[in-house]
Specification:
Chain B: Its main location: membrane. The complex is a heterodimer of chains A (267) and B (277). Chain A is mainly alpha-helical and 267 residues long. Chain A has ten helices and no strands. Chain A starts with a helix and ends in a 7-residue tail after the last helix. By secondary structure, chain B is mostly helical. The chains are: A mainly alpha (267), B mainly alpha (277).
Chain lengths: 267, 277
Amino acid sequence: MSGFFTAIVEAVTAALGIVDPLCGPVGIFTLFAGDTLLACGDTGWGDEIALGFLVTGSLALATLPVGLLFGFFIALAKQSEERSLRLSANIYTTLFRGLPELLTLFIVYYGLQILVQNAATAIGYQGTVEINAFFAGMIALGVVFSAYCSEVLLSAFKAIPRGQYEAGHALGLHRGRTMQRIILPQLVRIALPGLGNLWMALLKDTALVSVIGLPDILRQTGVAARVTKQAFEFYAIACLLFLILAFLSSLIFSSIERWAKRSEAAR
Amino acid sequence: MSHVSTSLIPPQEPPPAPPRPFTAGRFFGNVFMGVWLALTIGIFLMLVEGWDPEKFTRYGPNYLSGLGVTLTLVGLSVVLGAVLSLPLAFARMSKNPVFSWFSYGYVYFFRGTPLLTQLFLIYYGLGSFSAELKAWGLWWFFRDAWNCALLTFTLNTAAYQAEILRGAIESVPRGQHEGAAALGLPKKIAFFKVILPQALIVALRPYGNEIILMIKGSAIVAIITVFDLMGETRRAFSRTFDYQAYLWAALLYLIIVELLRNVWAWLEARLTRHLKR
């Protein structure tokens, strides 16, 4: 099984190596920065920064489904008839929308470390446990994202008239089916702009994970800046890479929005 | 007519309400409430157990001064950013493409990149030009991390506030402009007496969100060695290795944000009371 996974990882890495937009055979750094500080390989920082780019992108992409799923269930809980469910969902959002993201990250990172360490000691494991920074970052960002996401989805839910549920009921659809076939398609359409904003915020929040040592864009450029003493150039490159990510996601989001609205009547 | 009963049946109690079904929602609600309760009690016990008067007298005042630094930083940058956002918003709305594109680029840059990157760009990035800055006599400003944080936050919030202001001004319907023109009001008076008051009501809620975002975002100045609330927390944690340090900071941040949110809700209700139907 592990051999299978390694093979998959290797295949993905190889595929990414070819289409790598920064350091691949037709990458920006390879083509335009061959003999500068940004060269790929041992002479420059291009490959390190390309790795950071990949880490930032994959962290944000890995956080997105977790956050969306949790956010959806929290939004459902918030409009439940059950008071205790509503209250607990509201506590969650109040908590994680009120805390600074950096503090949430530290609390998750050190708190998880302490929890896991205590649990490990309890079952007799002697030794120090290290929490993976990627995992901690994913949890902290996912928690924050889900709190905001639940608000966006809740307001989208409220924009869907009751008649839609009743129509599903009248057609004899099951509750889950009504949700899947009638409510969700409309929900996506209404919530997309808000979710797009949240995705941008998530992308920017990934920069915080550099503080707990994950080699993302900011950390890699920071290391390069410290070594080469050309801080301004390297941090400007970090800004540029984030801008590229933001630009790409705005393109993707507008095409998703067009796709979601494909069957909407022209007004 | 003897079989007509003359006495009425006395009023009866309503039938008892059917028992509330124990649904999945109720089950999960109880479980989650239990989790929150357990967490609250756990954290409370942790705080009580780890209560150390010596640590409190040692780090308590630091936390308060850190809170002061956070609030000063955010307050100053929000006010300065508001001032800077005015020309930006007008440049964005101007018909001159140079102004409008400059403003668009500015806003796109500051909204598209993380605050932390901007902070590093200004603090470390401009720090590498110390010789030039010294020659221009600006080094005293950029040498200090606090000044750099203030500059970054001001520039950043100016971009966001410019967008808020522009959106609010453009949300005022055209008829209001036309009405003011029909009354013979000069453009300037029409703007200040007719357009702006309506726009600011629209902008009120986004402004509140922006201030809250700034308070939360300001925690990152701890990374460039400014001792705000987060910085003091990290210092206390690095000296004591006591997890409580973060919990106290979380509590303080939550109190500020909730306070601000409630004040803002009250302010909004108060300022829009003439719009209530």
